[in-house]
Fold:
Amino acid sequence: MRYEQLADLPCSITRPLVVLGDRWTLLILKEAFAGVRRFNAFQGNLGIPRSRLQDRLGRLVEHGILVRQQAADGDHAEYRLSRKGHDLYPILMAIKDWGDAHMAPDGPPVHYRHRDCPGEARVSLACDCCGERMTAHDVVPEAGPGLLAHVDAGAPG
Amino acid sequence: MRYEQLADLPCSITRPLVVLGDRWTLLILKEAFAGVRRFNAFQGNLGIPRSRLQDRLGRLVEHGILVRQQAADGDHAEYRLSRKGHDLYPILMAIKDWGDAHMAPDGPPVHYRHRDCPGEARVSLACDCCGERMTAHDVVPEAGPGLLAHVDAGAPG
DNA sequence: CGAAGGTGGTCTCTTTTCGAGACCGACGCT
DNA sequence: AGCGTCGGTCTCGAAAAGAGACCACCTTCG
Structure:
């Protein structure tokens, strides 16, 4: 039970990771972005045990990342990305960039191409004020409103 | 044993996730980016069981993401980010952006500020050719050299 | 009608992983 | 000697994952 409590920490990296940080969740979401919507499709594509998939899909629905609904044409279930889920795309693309750079000795297995353009999707870290590119060295952490609210609410320690 | 074999798939999202996709690994790396280098510091900050930490650090060193060395001044061990590890930063920042947007009702707990600038680090997905901002809808997957090499090498199926 | 096949979903049983905390040897200090 | 800290190891009970059978429901097709 200790691990789940990490979600209470005032940290916007830790909190998502408690939801996304496991063996299968991000893989399921990757499939969802590839257009997969059906239980058996997720299961077959990933080789994930059915009970595990059931659990993970349920958790993602609980968190509002996926939405479960009956398909319009038939009556089978569909799992679709919500807006919140859709916003996870940069995370997957950042992983993709790293994978291409460091785990793809033969070059990228897949190009994530820009529609109607020779270019390719790439993630970049930049300053939202001056627009300059940034790396970890350029970053200075500083307390924000969420931290103050957390302290005011009587955080332990 | 099935799960580890996902690393053989020609997919630059799947392969990193087999390394990074678990409860603790990305949290450890988050600490590393925050400047943490010592075993006991990782352990204390995260509350991770010592044996687990030992295992994870070892795995990250094996993958060349962290480098273990004896500290110059003393003789205690240090774990530092390699170049490869350093390149993971955009992933953590993408997670941070999502956490700020969807899991921080009181606002960001921490601002990742640009040094000497009022701005803040933000991840964006853009085309590396025309520079246009992109979302999942603008992306078209297309076979790349890594996929062809994988097929030529006699991939199953 | 009844069999076949697909759907999402559940249950059981075994193996693997995780978590908590004691324990260790090496080193430094006093 | 006595104590504290360091990274690291060991044990053991608890939790999670994996495999695969099983289920009810619905279509389709003979």
About this structure: Chain A touches chain B through 86 residues (CB under 8 Å). Chain A has seven helices and five strands.
